[in-house]
Amino acid sequence: MTTGLPVPSPAQAKPRERADAARNRAQILAAAEELFATRDPATITMDQLAKAAGVGRATLYRRFPDPAAVAVALLDEHEYRLQEQLLSGPPPLGPGAPPGERLAAFYVAAIDLLERHLPLALGAETGPARFTSGAYGFWRVHIRTLLVDADVPDPDAHIDLLLAPLAPELYDFQRNRMGLSSDRIIACVAGMARRFMR
User: Fold this and answer.
1) Which one of 78, 127, 140, 186 has the fewest CB atoms closer than 10 angstroms to its CB?
2) How many degrees, rounded to 5, is the angle at CA 60 between CA 17 and CA 72?
3) Does pTM top 0.85 for this prediction?
4) Which CATH number covers residue 54?
């Protein structure tokens, strides 16, 4: 299988950290979670992040060059948790359910992630940047596996089409310009998944 992108496993994506470094990272991401949820991400400064996290500016800058990098790291944390559920969580999101049900469950979980973290996703995974993220590579492998399990002909031609409904800019358009509820969007894509992989 050729995806064109290197895809680290979740285990590879988490190098071991010193205890103090891990604690600082957790404090920074927890503070960023609150700030990005309550403020316009474009207005958040490194000073605000350092103060909210209770760490020095030097500690923050050792890990992250700017607020956008903190946003990407925070989004990575949430995506990593979803990856773990896809690999070893209970069905239908995890192994053990039919491919159509697993794809529907993946759509539900991914849309929930977008609903809760859309500003982060818009800052980190729009345009060409979306296709080079580690998470997108992981989603491609997952979708291809489901397509193969469902005996869909030419699975490689379908992967990105099935991921297109999860583009952050599309979700933003549907929610904030068209006024669709997340429940309506979920019902649409979950139904599409079940019909496609009968």
Assistant:
1) 127
2) 80
3) no
4) 1.10.10.60
